Amino acid sequence: MSPFASTQPLIVTGVSKTFTAGIGPRLRRRGLPRRQVRAVQDVSFDVAPGEIFGLIGANGSGKSTLIRILSSLVLADEGEVRVFGYDVERDSLQVRQLINRVSADPSFFRQMSALENLLFYGRAYGLRPACAKEQAASILDRLGLDDGQRRTMVKELSRGQQQKIAVARAFLTSPVLMLLDEPTTGLDPRSKRDVQRFIREVQRDQEATIILTTHDMGEAEALCDRIAFIVGGRIVAEGTSAELRRTVANGQPIDEIDLEDVFMVLTGRKVEDDEEEEQEEVSVGE
Prior knowledge:
Elements: E1 10-20, H1 25-29, E2 36-47, E3 52-56, H2 63-70, E4 78-83, E5 86-87, H3 92-98, E6 99-102, H4 114-124, H5 129-143, H6 147-150, H7 159-170, E7 177-181, H8 189-206, E8 209-214, H9 217-223, E9 226-231, E10 234-239, H10 241-249, H11 259-267
Parallel strand pairs: 3-8, 3-9, 6-7, 7-8
Antiparallel strand pairs: 1-2, 1-4, 4-5, 9-10
């Protein structure tokens, strides 16, 4: 059992973040001011030990900015984040030892093989070489990467295979809090199932606490104990899948209500709709 099991894994209180939007040279010559983009607005929630908590929102809704704040990669303008009691800003070193993160666009040493990448990161994480090799082989087996694929240079692997390596790297050290930012985006159906199955197994076997961002309603329902809808940087609804359905049921059986319809009723938009892009990712014309 995790030594942190009796401590709240994550408490987020009143977190906000604003970015200054870049503009192209033509607009700058016209003297137009830069826009302020509020990426995250007064977000609060907490996550229980061993829970998978889902953040559902469209592209640009603020969920990726929020994940970066939780992992101490971006500093919030307001509010507080605590990971197992540690303040994510003041105690960032301790926090980073407790969490790992998977993004939708991971980076690797592309001239190295999948196995070489994992062994390198294992050493960087402080694992003994033999332990890193054993862990890497076990995780890659569970993710369905065969011996030939794991010895192939990363640049020659498919998008789905690369994402599996990113997931394997993140779980190499058995983190107690995992931040999964769109981990299956762009994957083929089989690769998506492999990653989802692995996430469920890790959560069950290691009692890991997981934050999952996605715009895939089916994935959220399959994996998450609780779900929050995020729109325009704000959390507008939170609860189990059944609780969210019940808020719009109006007498209709909840098992006949589609979660995408719930999102539409509660937010006024479809989850597939792009919102204004989060500014740390885009600087127009720069």
